[in-house]
Known about the structure:
Number of helices: 16
Structural class: alpha+beta
Strand content: 25-35%
Shape: globular
CATH class of the largest domain: Alpha Beta
Amino acid sequence: MNLRQLRNIGISAHIDSGKTTLSERILFYAGRIHRMGEVRGEGATLDYMELEKERGITITSAATSVDWQGSRINVIDTPGHVDFTIEVERSLRVLDGAVLLLCAVGGVQAQSITIDRQMRRYGIPRLAFINKMDRTGADPLGVVKQLQERLGCETLLLQLPIGAEADFQGVVDLVAEEAVYFDGPNGEKVRREAIPANMVDEAAAARRHMLEDLSMYSDELLEALLSEESVPQTLVRQVIRKATLAQQITPVLMGTAYRNKGVQPLLDAVVDYLPSPLDCPTTAHGADDPAEEIVLQADPNQPAVAMAFKIVEDPHGTLTFMRIYQGTLAKGQSYYNQRTGRQERLGRMVRMHADQREELSEASAGDIVAVMGLDTASGDTYCAQRNYALLQNMHVPEPVIQMAVAPMDREGAGRLAKALQRFRREDPTFRVTNDEETGETLIGGMGELHLQIYVQRIQREYRVDVEVGQPKVSYREAPTQPAKFEVRHRKQTGGSGQYAHIIGRFEPLPEDAEEPFLFEEHVTGGRIPKQYIPAVEKGFRSLLRKGPVAGFPVVGLAVHLDDGSFHEVDSSDLAFQTAAQIAMREFFSRTKPVLLEPVMKIEIECPSTFQGAVVGDLTGRRGMVMGAKITGPTVRVEGEVPLAETFGYSTSLRSLTQGQGTFTLEFARYNRLSPALERTIIEERRKKMATGAV
């Protein structure tokens, strides 16, 4: 395999922008499938789960591989719902490039902004594809403007539409200076002709604008423009590629996947402008020394380094998806898990096409494969050598919602435990905890839909009838003012006793702090030996899970250890850990802690005739409207609303809009509750704690 001809890309977008439909067309035009499926009905190739076919949504990312014009493209189709954002996160972590899909009517929507943030986090070059050009109200230039204003992208328009809405016929290729049409029953025949006479001037002006934008990134192109020479296509493509790889521009293409128009030029652009593994050197950290940087090369002859980025359990065993960054992985060989230090043997190795498999004996740098036989976790690094390198792990957001689950009968308890253990391994945002006081099993996730899907999978795949409790909001407790503490812990029993003395202060962290807890020590003169400092931190951390206000986790807290003393005989790790726990229990309440609740960004789309009712209902839910935009007959309302007020909102919105409204939720931040609500929640919580119901 020539690595120059390999592309690892993901297709990401807001809900219902057409990701899976586009993926299906890519498979068809590349000859991977011979009949196109649709999202609704029998389901598309990459939506192979029964729940995906029933709901018409993508739940889990699916991988496939196609050949196009002599290049191989590994494609990952990702979900659009924010509830499954980890699927996008871990896919983008291991990809080299991406296609940001946008609806020609909806433009840049809530999840588009999240995806943009994820792409920037991992430094991924991307193309933008404006889909659904055949829809009423399609406005590609308006979408380009939104890309610039809402996402801060330096856009480069590579195409112009021929026709609009229902009359959309094809595109004008501004690089090749020709019109492109898509003939045949499935748009498989690409016809290139001269630009229509009525568009010659518009196309010339658009091309001139494109070249002027590109001249900022190439002196050669600038000289050609200044001397009014003809600019060769090869130079234009080289400059576009160079600027795209440097993430200086976002090339924009357009089409309608459902009507089979514009997909082949997009595939050409993927090959022409997105990076190969050779264009993306990856930096890892030393396994023993985090400060050491190791630059990994996409060279099959170097020591192997790969990341396990996704785990799926199926009837044949555990399947681990891996991206190989350096070296070669071979079936039957053993590699070291850098996190655990264990050496593990690779069983079967396959290349995935949705749920179908192609057996491999080995795979080399730049490839994405799935292997069997590993006992691993998402984000683990595997190397040919022990303690060789650690790859940057993926960002995993914290769950915002919890609900209790319990089997309806005793026979189902074992199968439920097995299901929860599997899903927890597969999905880092799916958390399982046990309430210590009630013994309830709580599942946590990114939203109602997230947990509903898992409950349905438990019922179907493991045949367990489960009883589901009401969703519970993950409130937090946070300090509001500084407070000092001093604890002298003495305990004398037979033999050596316990002694620890700590002095310090609690302080609130700023709202934009990256971590919820900060521990700093400022002890001088050896008043507390260095070996006891970690025990003090451990003592404070051990009580963060249950705060003193109402037993919710503590966030936004900085602990500064300033002074103390020790005893040469009686002091120990346990004594200092106990002293820290006493300080937390007795002095934390002096910081006047308050309750925080999760607030969600909400984006609602509905017919504009229902705008008043929708806004009124949102305000009644303690929500705040941030803006509204009317596009033709549709209005998009953006705002914020507390998570506690969103349970069952889909039913309310459908009744308010005669079934025509849709909405998306995304976690925004934690906000302080009003004093009245805080008192109510604390009273309810304490009553439940007193009766053992919490």
